[in-house]
Every structure is written in C-alpha cells, then in structure tokens.
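Risk mitigation, structural track. In case the binding assays with coenzyme A fail to produce interpretable data, a predicted complex structure has been prepared as a fallback.
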Amino acid sequence: MKILGTGSALPKKVVSNDDLAQVMDTSDEWIRTRTGIERRHIAVEETTTSLAVEACKKALEQSKVSIDELDLIVAATVSSDYIYPTLSCEIQAAIGAKNATAFDISAGCSGFLFALATADAYLRTGRYKNALILGAETLSKMMDWSDRSTCVLFGDGAGAAVVSAEGNQLLGMVQGSDGARGTVLKCKNRPVHNLYKQEAGQSLAYSYTEMDGSAVYKFAVRTVPNAIANVLEQAKVPVADVKYFLLHQANLRIIEAVAKRMNQPLEKFPTILEECGNISAASVPSLLDQIHREGKLSKGDKIVMAGFGAGLTWGACVLEW
Ligand code: COA
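Fallback model:
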C-alpha cells in the first residue's frame, strides 16, 4: 500500500488552559507541566461527521483519487454521532462515494493504526484498490467536566489518509490488545433499558470517561517502546534510520519517556498535542498530515507511527515514504 493523500480538521473553538481555569479548579501551570497541552479545540457547531468529512475531503483532494475510484472507507472512532448508521456510512453519503464499502472500527486511541492495518489487509487480497482511512472524535461530549484529572487532557478533531494498493510503503505492522486491563480507561454505553429489567432507582443517565491516569501512563511507557522495537525488527529497519516517530499524542511526558527508553533524540518525535490535546484516533493521522503538508517527508524517509489506548490496545507500523 501507499499513502496518496492526508488531511485533518479541528473545530473552530479554541479553549486554552487558562479558559479551563475559569470554569474548574485547575491551572495552565498544572496542565502544561503534567502534559505539555496548551489548548484544545472543542466542537460547538461541528460534529464528529463534519470534522471527519472536512479531513477526508482534504486527503482526497491531495490524493487525486476520484470519488468513484474509492472502494473502501474505514473510520476509527469511539465518539460517532450515531450508534448507527456508522460514521463511515455518514462520510460515504456526504462525499458521494457510492462504490465504497464502509464500516467503523473501535480501538480507542489506537484506532487509526487498526484502520490502516485493516485497509492494508484488504488491499493485499486484491479485493479493494483505494481506501479512505480516518480517525475522528468529539471526545468533549464524553467527558465528565467535573473530573479535572481527565477532562483537561482531551479534545476534538479528525485526521484522514487515502491509501492505494499500488506501492510498497508499509514495511511492518504490529498490533496488540490486553482486554484484562481494560478497566483503567473506560466509558459505559447506554444502560440496559428494557421491559424485563427495571430496578428501583435505576438511572438511565449516560456515563462519561473514567480513567486511572497513572495506570494508563505506565502501560504506555512500557508498551510503546516494545511495540516499536518489534515492528522495526520485523521490518529490518535500524532505529537510527527512522526519521520521525509519530506517536499518539496523549501526553508530552509519555513521548519524552518513550524517546528516552529508545535512546532517540526528542527532535525525532514531532508533536501537535500542544494545540489540540489528546484527540484519540485522530491524533496520529493529524500529526502525519501536519508534517506531510509542512514538506518534512521526502522519498525514502522511514517513519514509525504508533498508537495506544483504550481496550487496552496498541499498534505500530514502519513506512517508507
Ligand atoms: N489541575 C490541577 N490539579 C489537578 C488536576 C488538574 N487538572 N488534575 C488532578 N489534579 C491534582 C489531583 O487532585 C492530585 O492532587 P493531590 O495530590 O492533592 O491528591 C494531583 O493533582 C495529582 O497530581 P500528580 O500525581 O502529580 O499527577 P500525575 O503526575 O500522575 O499526572 C496525569 C496525572 C493524568 C496527567 C498522568 O497520570 C497521565 O498523563 N496519565 C496518562 C493519561 C493518558 O494519557 N490517557 C490517555 C491515553 S490514550
């Protein structure tokens, strides 16, 4: 497979750390020093679908793949506007990709890596030729805004890529899951609400994101360096040959710890989390789009992309641009 185009989108409303400090007991100093996040974009007028469509249109325009040639859409999200129809079907309708098969996958913040792996597997079989893959989230609607230890970390956004079966850009891919540790980062779906189960005092209120930040931190700093080492070994690429490591943008301290464990300079780890916080499945494709549009990728460059998050799940790949 080969990436032919990338795109990303953020909501218009920018919320700085100081803005949050106006409405909850927090401070710019606490958020910056613990996470590196300076601001995030929060959807007010936008939806997960509208952000996704904006990112997808940019990726498609750059790719030069026509809408009719698109035969697969894989959207990674945990915050689609509807439970059904899926986000991918909403995108299909919005862009008029009538020849595409469209479905969503849910793998938390690893979602884009899982979408890439899924599309690659389909493209290798020859069943499809041109895929649109993306991560899009409006996590702001899933936050408990009275839980300052979690809500300050997340934001809304979308990132997309158009990938074609022609080319051999993907040199290696690893994925993993550990459902037994999933409770450290969770958000319940709707409560059971049927004719046969109604308990006194049963609440039908929705749940919001709950996180054991310290457990997630430890998971990330142990798992990501291992996943990257494994994928580099699989691809037979020495770590020193990698130009950029595009990590899921959760927390600058996690990125610094991974760089240190891998004995690699921090300059190889570009970031966007200062601007948008943790945008879950949208973070890796948005970062890819940023460095791509800044002209930082040349033919032959080797880059690693790595995601980790709810599930727990993780994924890492090596690409040769
Ligand atoms: N503003 C001010 N104070 C806050 C705060 C906020 N937004 N959130 C929590 N605090 C307070 C707590 O109440 C606690 O106070 P106490 O010590 O008086 O009880 C204290 O800060 C906790 O601070 P500390 O233990 O230093 O936090 P930390 O260094 O463990 O950092 C996280 C917390 C959440 C930033 C960190 O654990 C983390 O980044 N985890 C990974 C989370 C993540 O990336 N999740 C998504 C992965 S996909």
